[in-house]
Here is the input.
Amino acid sequence: MSEPTVAVLTEDRVSYSRTRFEEEAPAIGLRTRFLHPQHFDLLVDPRLPKAYYRSRLLGPPAVFMARTGSETTAFAGAIIKQMEAAPGVEVINTRDAIMRSRDKLLAHQTLAQAGVPFPRTVLARQPADLAKMVRMVGGPPVILKLISGTHGRGVMLGRDLESIEATLETIWALNETLLIQEYMSAHAGSDIRVIVVGGRALAAMRRTAKLGRFRANVHQGADVEKLQMDERMEWLALRATEAMGLDVAGVDLVEGADGYSVIEVNSAPGFEGFEHATGVNVAREMLRYAAFRIGL
Ligand SMILES: Nc1ncnc2c1ncn2[C@@H]1O[C@H](COP(=O)(O)OP(=O)(O)O)[C@@H](O)[C@H]1O
Ligand SMILES: [Mg+2]
Here is the structure.
């Protein structure tokens, strides 16, 4: 009998995580297959929903792992939804959970409803009284964020009212929506990443931005190091992940005067830096969780 298949939906044709999944799968008794959203066709039918991949009927995988993350398009979302409806397929990170975490407006509202602390945030379309909004979040300075940004792109530091105003006017001219957020400066230029898999926080790492920068994304050249995970970090990461409805997540925390707050919950965390910094075998943990979901 052949091993159960974990189908990974991803836009990456080569990536560290792909290689790592391929390395770890055999020892767990799983097979991996990598699928790109662009090669799918979906037959939407109440009795016989079908998915075609490269024009051939896709046999239902045991596990469908959606790793499109913040790049999840409406179509990729539809693929995931279709898999949720397929009998016998375990979907890791549902379409709704991914979409919730991907949209920074919805994500913040979800955290608020779940009582998870996050920096004071104004969802701004075109506030009449900008100075007041900026003061409401304790600035200037403030953080300005595009709702759909990722990898640190679309996150800006507004140092004074005049530059904040100029930035906002530019963004609004492009018809974009922006968050105005409290700048958490207790540990400026660094943040904390916790990876959660199946209700367990694996470890924590600190990411430190390049000198003089404030965005601690690995894509922005941040350095990573292992951090002792304390109870508060763990609780926040688990709570935020649960609020989003995610099975697997990378939760980002920043520190303010009153402690940690959650700034982002990523549905498809990369783990190259995390594995190197913490020594945790993230690929194996994710696949073991996939195996657990199918009772292996
Ligand atoms: N409110 C904040 N206070 C301080 N730094 C922040 C804040 N929000 C974001 N940052 C910094 O900017 C980086 C990117 O922000 P994030 O919200 O995670 O967006 P992205 O989706 O682009 O990763 C964070 O990793 C953090 O270093
Ligand atoms: Mg982030």
